[in-house]
Amino acid sequence: MGGVTGTLVLAGTPIGDIADAPPRLAEELAGADVVAAEDTRRLRRLTQALGVTPKGRVVSYFEGNESARTPELVEELVGGARVLLVTDAGMPSVSDPGYRLVAAAVERDVRVTAVPGPSAVLTALALSGLPVDRFCFEGFLPRKAGERLGRLREVAGERRTLVYFEAPHRLDDTLAAMAEVFGAERRAAVCRELTKTYEEVRRGGLGELAAWAAEGVRGEITVVVEGAPERGAEEVGAEELVRRVRVREEAGERRKEAIAAVAQEAGVPKRQVFDAVVAAKNAAT
Length: 285
Prior knowledge:
By secondary structure, the chain is an alpha/beta fold. It has three domains: 7-118, 3-Layer(aba) Sandwich (Cobalt-precorrin-4 Transmethylase, domain 1), CATH 3.40.1010.10; 137-225, 2-Layer Sandwich (Methyltransferase, Cobalt-precorrin-4 Transmethylase, Domain 2); 233-283. It has helices at 23-31, 40-50, 66-78, 99-107, 120-128, 145-154, 171-182, 206-213, 238-250, 255-266, 270-284, and strands at residues 7-11, 34-37, 57-60, 82-86, 111-115, 135-140, 161-166, 187-192, 200-205, 221-225. Helix 10 packs across helix 11 (270-284). The longest helix has 15 residues, at 270-284. The N and C termini lie far apart (71 Å). The relative contact order is 0.12.
């Protein structure tokens, strides 16, 4: 390790129930030279609940100061310090601060290790009732409707189970967009307040879940969506081909490119998609 003696420790913190804290977390909090926390107030509540007092310096490390503070922490590490990184909940760097610090530490040959802990991604996936053998984590979707549709369109043919984080006030719009792009019958699960008092897992088709979410939902949200089904060319009907083209057009694609992309995705000739689009247009006039 080039003589470097410092260590960066990424520590998982409870996503809800404090009893889920890994035993090593208290040890690391008590012994680290520097504790970098996403929210120092939440860290104080965590240490009080665990009955530990950090001996080291406590600093904030959040989205707003991540770029500026990373070099400072790296110098601490190069100088031999043991730096513990914790976020508000779950594992650092997974849709939370941490990636920049890990990358910078690795660049300087600093040892990086972890205290494994709870993960909303894996917990929601396990509770969803959907296939877990292959999955991909997509994080948060863009806030703007057009960008959100575009991102969903990119994974419309993804056969692995998809996992997303979402804010409660955007959940209904997100589920509606998913229903539009993936199809209203695509199975999904909305996991709310995992491991907390009001934990809830709502399962159903995306259309059904979008209608439910329109009434208002609170809490921390993780959405798990079934992957695209394997379909042969004969299984994709004209109506579905037209819907896929429409989704792509609404996301900004030209019709020619949308038809070509849908044909490739569905495994059918471009002419078949073109004819379906023309027939649907004539039927509407």
